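Re: the request from the purification team.
They wanted to know what the chain is likely to look like in 3D before they choose a buffer screen. I agreed to run a prediction and write the result into the notebook, where they can find it.
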Amino acid sequence: MGIQGRTVIAENIITGEVLEFQSQRHLSNYFMDIYDIEISTSNVSRLIGQKKPYRKTWRVYYKEDLSDEEIKAIARRATQINETPKWKKELVHKLVTMLAPYRTAK
């Protein structure tokens, strides 16, 4: 299986959202949709395993490279974040969505 075909997990460290993508291309398309930028699959491969989260929001991993304990830790973090009251999560989501064009503007 090529690098492009490996399953990728993207973890939003702010909202606790954990998304699974079939390939780097699918993740790059997702980032292009939400941030209205061009990002290639090679740039996505550079994001994988970085210590600094992408846009201070996303941690990206290859699913195959994670142990069961690491997958459980990601799920635990998501659960802890998801214990935040619903109104706070909705407010954060609205703010992130509203401010995204300003963060990506040059």
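For the purification team: The chain has a mean pLDDT of 82.
Please add any questions underneath this entry.
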